[in-house]
Amino acid sequence: MSKPLILVTGATGKTGAPVVEQWRERGFPVRALARRRDERSRRLEALGAEVVIGNLLESKSVRLAMQDVKRVYFCYPPGDQLLDATAIMAAVARDAGVEALVNISQLPAREDAPSALSRHHWLSENIFDWADIGAVHIRPTFFAEMLFILGGKTIPLEGKLYLPYGSQRHAPVAAADIARVAVAILADPTLHVGERYVVTGPRNMTVAEMTELLSNELGRPVEYVDLPNEAWGQVLREQVGLPEFLVAHLQAVADDHKNGVFSAQTDVVERIGGRPAQSVEEFVRSHRDMFTGDADSTEPTWRSPGRVVEAAIRE
Fold first, then answer.
1. Under CATH, domain 146-169+202-263+275-314 is a member of which superfamily?
2. Start-end of CATH 3.40.50.720 domains in the chain
3. pLDDT by residue (tens digit) across 145-163?
């Protein structure tokens, strides 16, 4: 029996790329949808994936990518056009006779979420369900990668990790583990259709506990600085340059974190993905160069909070 063709959207992203890699390891034919040809898309081609250039906001583009596809991994970058991309994918996938679609949502997705993006994810899940295309939704907590995306500059330079998460807990999960769950579901989707899986790492921790582990693994002190949410928003606007939609989302999920929304711990990675989720210690050990400033190939989006943060803390 021939293996079905898989379409991976967001194929060059944090979860899309490992989904492609893991599918190719299983010997499945993979079509990777990317926005442009670059070094990342060429790496996917080197794995044996068919790379197509397209735009999830254009139905013609999606229909071309969907030819002969029976299963889909749907990932759309955080932004204010998620619902447009979802509606287009749902309509095209229904017309194409897609039998299973894994949708990456987020843990705080709910009808009354303070973040518009979290509400959009809740609506996106419902749109895919209504399309009757075998949708399964995975709701990861914060990615473990966020530790070096947000601390990749400040940890080596200052020995500090600035975040507005208070003393509540979450269980960081690595992108490769999220991908493992998605691949396992799409390989045998029958028992999963309609489910919403919360995907976490193996241990619920405060950010202060995470920095203790970082200190132990890196052999140097790392301190958690509990940043006021207002200062967090100012840094995201002025130093990172994020659009207001994402700033509002990140501030809202920070409040969610302080209210315990992210305090979840599940065994989904091991139970469905087939192996235990990476611990924070294992993740830091395998990405040590990201926390020491030695990685030239990946430039973290975060910049040191500098005077904005220090002034906010003093106030």
1. UDP-galactose 4-epimerase, domain 1 (3.90.25.10)
2. 6-140
3. 999 888 888 899 899 999 9
Torsion of CA 268, 274, 279, 281, to 10 degrees: -170
Please give the structure tokens belonging to residue 206.
Answer: 């405060």
Helix (H, G, I), strand (E, B) or coil at 248: helix
Q: Which amino acid is at 236?
A: L
Which of 125, 129, 131, 123 is closest to 96 using CA atoms? Answer: 131
Render pLDDT for 265-279 as a digit per residue (tens, 0 to 9). 999 999 999 999 999
Domain 6-140 classified CATH 3.40.50.10140?
no
Phi, psi dihedrals of residue 191, rounded to the nearest 5°: -80, -5
> CA distances (Å), 161 to each of 152, 190, 222, 273, 309, in order?
9, 42, 7, 30, 11
Cβ-contact 71, 189 below 8 angstroms? yes
